[in-house]
Design brief:
This protein has 232 residues and is an alpha+beta fold. It is built from seven helices and eight strands; from the N terminus they run ββββαββββαααααα. A three-stranded antiparallel β-sheet has the order 1-2-3, with no helix packed on it. A three-stranded antiparallel β-sheet has the order 4-6-7, with no helix packed on it. The protein has a two-stranded antiparallel ribbon with strand order 5-8.
Length: 232
C-alpha cells in the first residue's frame, strides 16, 4: 500500500500496476481503478513512496523548475506534500521511479513520445524498433497512463533540425502536439517559456501553426525535458 487508497503490485514478469480504491463508488462494482500499468525489463522489488532527497529540499527543487505545479504528490493526506515518486529496486540493481504528473504535461509528453517512436533517426531505442517497443510495453498487461522517460530523453540527443522535424510530424492518428502545447502553456506559470499559448491561436490549423512555431515548440520541449531530468 502506497497510501490508504493506492496499492502498487509488481509482477514476476516485470509488470507494475497501481490500483486506486474509488470511495465514490458505493456499488463496489468498479471500486478499483487502474491508475497506471506498464511492463519493465526486470523484476521490480518492493515499490514504496520515497525520495532520495529530504522532503523540504524536494519541494524547493520542484518549485524552482519550469515544470513547477506539474509534478504532483500521489496523495495529499500523507505527512508531507512533497511530490515523492513511487520507487522500486530491480533484481539487477537498477532504481525505478514513477512520478505522478499533471494531465496537461502527460498529454504533451505522450504526443512527443508517439512521434519519437516513428521517427527513423531516433530509433536507437532499447528494443530496436517501434514495433518491438509497443509489443514489449504491453507484454504482461496493457500499458495505461504511462510515458517513458528513457525514450523521451532521446529528443535531447537530436540536432535542432531533427527536433523540429519530430515536432512537425502531423499524422491523423497522432495526438495533436499543438493542442497539447497550448493546454500545457495555459496551465504553466507565465513567462516561463519563450512561447505563449496565445500565439497558438485555435483559429489556425495545426499545419500553419507548426510551420510558424515548430522551432519554438521544440525549444520548449527541450526545456521541459531538461527540467524533468534534473528533478525526476
Amino acid at each position: 500500500m502506497i497510501t490508504d487508497r493506492i496499492a502498487v503490485c509488481a509482477g514476476q514478469s516485470g509488470g507494475l500496476i497501481a490500483l486506486w480504491d474509488n470511495p465514490a463508488d458505493k456499488s463496489f462494482e468498479e471500486r478499483l481503478i487502474t491508475l497506471f500499468s506498464f511492463q519493465y525489463s526486470d523484476i521490480i522489488l518492493r515499490p514504496v513512496l520515497a525520495s532520495l532527497l529530504p522532503s523540504a529540499i524536494l519541494d524547493v527543487v520542484l518549485q524552482a523548475q519550469p515544470i513547477a505545479g506539474h509534478i504532483l504528490p500521489w496523495a495529499r493526506n500523507i505527512a508531507s506534500d512533497a511530490a515523492k515518486p513511487i520507487m522500486g529496486v530491480t533484481v539487477s540493481g537498477c532504481v525505478v521511479r514513477v512520478h505522478k504528473i499533471s494531465q496537461p504535461l502527460y498529454h504533451l509528453l505522450i504526443a512527443l513520445q508517439e512521434r519519437i517512436l516513428i521517427y527513423s533517426s531516433a530509433l536507437f531505442i532499447p528494443l530496436g524498433s517501434a514495433r518491438d517497443f509497443r509489443w514489449f510495453s504491453n507484454l504482461s498487461q496493457k500499458e495505461k497512463h504511462v510515458v517513458h522517460g528513457d525514450l523521451l530523453v532521446l529528443f535531447l540527443r537530436l540536432l535542432p533540425e531533427q527536433q523540429r522535424e519530430i515536432v512537425e510530424m502531423n499524422e491523423p492518428e497522432q495526438p495533436s502536439i499543438v493542442k497539447a502545447t497550448r493546454t500545457f502553456l495555459e496551465t504553466s506559470a507565465r513567462d516561463t517559456f519563450a512561447l505563449d499559448h496565445r500565439e497558438l491561436a485555435e483559429e489556425k490549423d495545426d499545419k500553419t501553426i507548426l510551420w510558424e512555431y515548430a522551432s519554438k515548440i521544440a525549444a520548449m520541449l527541450v526545456q521541459v525535458l531538461g527540467a524533468l531530468e534534473r528533478c525526476c
